[in-house]
Amino acid sequence: xxxxxxxxxxxxxxxxxxxxxxxxxxxxxxxxxxxxxxxxxxxxxxxxxxxxxxxxxxxxxxxxxxxxxxxxxxxxxxxxxxxxxxxxxxxxxxxxxxxxxxxxxxxxxxxxxxxxxxxxxxxxxxxxxxxxxxxxxxxxxxxxxxxxxxxxxxxxxxxxxxxxxxxxxxxxxxxxxxxxxxxxxxxxxxxxxxxxxxxxxxxxxxxxxxxxxxxxxxxxxxxxxxxxxxxxxxxxxx
Length: 238
Fold this sequence. Notes:
The protein is mostly helical. It is built from ten helices and two strands.
């Protein structure tokens, strides 16, 4: 009567923690970036760089030379700038470690398969793989969708059944990576783009991209089970 639980090996748990730590560093770095921009905006400091040029080398050098006209304000901005530099260095170091991990025998072939998907690179592939681990533990595509929290919630009242938003239960890290990758995918796969536009017209953009992410997860499961690369179906798109 008891359902079995998948238990990670110590090595798998360590690999997952490395990728999760990198994601946390990236999120912390984004928070610091927002804090710096908010501080500059609050004190009416005009940034002499376009949005594309911000957070580049010249922008960082300019940031360290900004004078807010007060010793304590300057110290606050300097500390935020130093924190951004530190987190950037840690992000670079961890990214290198994740890429090296993806070249190990346990991951290299699966990473190569997932990289055939438009919009998925080595980092996204590793985030997906360490969260899913052994894909054979999902007996059906619905089991995988439920694990990822990409299954719509259901509301029942008598004979009426209404499907609502996704449950958000399950592995939110893998779900986030799949949704992020889906935004890139619909720009490169015309069939997925058509699917997105069709659902968007009927149910809105958020539900449309979630539907694409669910479909992508199903295709990833089949790719890993059959050891086949991703193929863009131009005929269906047409």
